[in-house]
Amino acid sequence: MTALVLGLAVSWAAGSIMTRGKAAAVAPAQAPARDIKLKTADGLKVAGTYRPGARPDSPAVLLLHGVDASRAAVAANAEWLAGEGYATLAIDFRGHGQSDTAPRSFGLNEANDARAALDWLKHTQRDAKVAVIGISLGGASSLIGTDGPVPADALILQAVYSDIRHAIRNRIAARLTSIPAYLLEPLLSYQSRIRFGVWPDRLSPLAALPRYKGPVLVIGGIEDRSTPPAETRALFAAATGPRSLWLVPHGDHPEISGLSDAAYRSRILAFLRRAIGA
Questions:
Q1: Is 15 a member of any domain?
Q2: Which of 50, 65, 161, 178 could make a disulfide contact with 69, Cβ separation 3.0–4.6 Å?
Q3: Which CATH number do you get for residue 250?
Q4: Is residue 21 part of a domain?
Q5: What is the pLDDT at residue 1?
Q6: What is the per-residue pLDDT for 96?
Q7: Among 161, 230, 164, 150, CA closest to 202
Q8: How many folded domains does the chain comprise?
Q9: Which domain holds residue 231?
């Protein structure tokens, strides 16, 4: 009995660490970029950096970072896309960067941040088309909100987990092997009912994606242990609109999340030109 209580206490403490928000410094924008603050539907303030496009009504790209990162992680790609003529907006999710501190919820509540940013970018660009590049947590937030997938004109899902149970299990297995992962994962996953008011099955980009009908590019890694290629292929198969798949041959989850090389940019640019225009 003592061992059971101790195990539950340790797992709850681990879950608290996983969901605890943490601020981080982000360098101020340099003109013509500018830093902004957005207010979400549930009342939080979210920090972002906007870079204007070639025209006031240029197509735009919303860049959403992964867990434990900030908009600084996507700044180089945002600047590159602005150089290609797209307006860009990169935000800090709640509990990250310079946004309000709040518990992290693996995309569920962060969806409010993504929606506020998308609406602001649509309005600023005079209702031009907007694509989302969602990296890991960012991709989940574009899909699993209360209202379903965000109404973007195109989605790029990069290193996005299929569902929270697999995501937790994969990360434990990468450190402790598969047997401890299967034993420990439920102790963490089912905390979602207490912490967020939903069962873990609700935290599933794979289940949410069929509701999105626009163009989708799914990017994953052959060597990604946190989001294995089988899960990336399943995400691709779940897309119901025009879809593309790119499995990068080398790199674990951090490398796939941080792609910015010439091959990556070439694929991103080709997809954006097809999906939202040049």
A1: no
A2: 65
A3: 3.40.50.1820
A4: no
A5: 66
A6: 98
A7: 164
A8: 1
A9: 27-165+198-275
Give me the amino acid identity at 19: T
pLDDT at 10: 82
Please count the other Cβ atoms lying within 10 Å of the Cβ belonging to residue 268.
Answer: 24
| 154 part of a folded domain | yes
**Do 209 and 235 form a contact (C-beta atoms < 8 A)?**
yes
The answer to whether residues 49 and 78 touch, using CB atoms and an 8 Å cutoff, is yes
Residues 36-63 have a mean pLDDT of: 98
228 pLDDT more than 90: yes
Q: Which two tokens stand for residue 238?
A: 């779940």
Domain assignment present for residue 210? The answer is yes
Is residue 154 very low, low, confident or very high in pLDDT (cuts 50, 70, 90)?
A: very high
Tell me what pLDDT residue 145 has: 97
pLDDT band at residue 11, thresholds of 50, 70 and 90? confident
The pLDDT, as a whole number, for residue 65 is 98
Using the CB atoms, write b or e for 44-63: b if 16+ within 10 Å.
bebbbbbbbbeeeebbbbbb
pLDDT band at 102 (very low <50, low <70, confident <90, very high): very high
Cα four-point dihedral sign 59, 64, 69, 70:
positive
Question: Does the pLDDT of residue 140 top 90, yes or no?
Answer: yes
